[in-house]
Amino acid sequence: MKSFLPFTPDSHFPIQNLPYGIFSTNDNATHRIGVAIGEMILDLSLVSHLFTGPVLKTKQQVFQQDTLNGLMSLGSPAWKEARSTLQTLLRDDCPTLRDDQKLRAKALIPQSSATMHLPAEIGDYTDFYSSIDHATNVGTMFRSKENALMPNWKYLPVGYHGRASSVVVSGTPIRRPNGQTRPKDEEPPVFGPCRLMDFELEMAFFVGPGNKLGDPIGIKVAHEHIFGMVLMNDWSARDIQKWEYVPLGPFLAKNLGTTISPWVVTMEALAPFVIDSYVQDPQPFPYLKHEDKYSYDIKLEVGIRAEGSNHTGTVCRSNFRHMYWTMKQQLAHHTITGCNVRPGDLLASGTISGPTEESYGSMLELSWRGSKTIDIGNGATRKFLQDGDEVVMTGYCQGEGYRVGFGLCTGKVLPAHPL
């Protein structure tokens, strides 16, 4: 499949991808829905009349909205029809857009001239803990190798309810938090800036159609409620977390900010890269069991750029395939109580670590609780993040001659507010 718009083989946004995002421009501050293609954005608010398929011809108004919630709520038949229409419009043999110079001039905007915004109004955000390598590493550090995984870990997708209000789009700076820590176990806690600032390499998915309170989403239909995925950096204040998390889990250590990439890659675009799910032992309960493949070969990378430097030093190379619990299992477990999810809700994977040191998805693991230094290039090293550091995450699936990518997920650490 070829487009009349150019893109290079290493572009994250070929015609095989077509992710959705929300953007504005200097000459038009209105937030509107766009689709990334090469280095351009197709403004769907200006081409909504071209969605004339049987599902969308009476629902074209969703493309005029300032978030993706409306489109997310329509469900899989609408999503597939929208993707088919977009691929047709952008193909090199379709004259509708290609030959309409006036419409092209208005509806195609360079990404470089756009400002990206959160793709959806996020009502609720849940963070899971679904990488077995990450959970084993953290458990080994804080307990022992023999007791690394808690007894429940292989029976259910462990998670917690996060803070939706502090989810921000890529490029938003994150301020180092102040809080209580206990540097020395034998002494009382102290108050001050977090010293062990960390990133967490994660991915997350947006919920499409929701469910009524009291009615679970079954594992066999869970995929019909998953719209698409983004990259995520779930920033963590490790020393604040260590002091506060017993007995109720993460709180202030995690609500300082959660960064997501602006482009939502649909599950239809990711379908060619589906792989066997992680082999689970013991077998999960029936409400969590599915035989179909629902893991994905998504190559992930994290770099750190020190303030004043032009060099981004790669510190982690991982892959989404390392996830033990699938997105379908996370959603089915989340709603088994009858908990109602809504279009635009965000469910995250938890830190994605692989089995090798270079694939560890956090500074906590890479530095092994501060016992090792991490080379970020140009003679600079880190154990945890310093003020001015910019964390750069990226991810993509590699096809034959093309990539389906997520773009960048970035954030810079600002100094803590003075006490």
Largest sheet, in brief, is: 8 strands, mixed
For this structure, the quaternary state is: single chain
Give the fraction of residues assigned to helices. 10-25%
Please mark out the parts with pLDDT under 50 across 5 or more consecutive residues, or reply none: none
Number of strands: 26
Mean pLDDT: 97
Approximate shape: globular
Strand percentage, roughly? 25-35%
Tally of contiguous helical segments: 9
- State the distance separating the first and last CA atoms: 58 Å
CA-atom Rg in angstroms:
22 Å
Structural class: alpha+beta
List keywords for this structure.
29% strand; alpha+beta; 419 residues
Describe this structure in words.
The chain is of the alpha+beta class. Helices cover 16% and strands 29% of the residues. The protein contains 9 helices and 26 strands. The protein has helices at 69-74, 76-90, 95-98, 101-107, 132-142, 238-244, 267-270, 327-335, 363-366; strands at residues 20-25, 28-37, 40-43, 108-110, 114-117, 125-128, 159-161, 167-169, 174-175, 178-181, 190-193, 197-198, 201-207, 226-234, 236-237, 258-260, 265-266, 274-275, 295-296, 299-305, 312-319, 346-348, 374-377, 380-382, 390-398, 403-414. Strands 6, 7, 8, 13, 14, 16, 17 and 22 form an 8-stranded mixed beta sheet that branches. A 5-stranded antiparallel beta sheet has the order 4-3-2-1-5. The protein has a 5-stranded mixed beta sheet with strand order 9-26-25-20-21, with no helix packed on it. A hairpin with a 6-residue loop joins strand 20 and strand 21. The protein is globular. It starts with 19 loop residues before the first strand and ends in a 5-residue tail after the last strand.
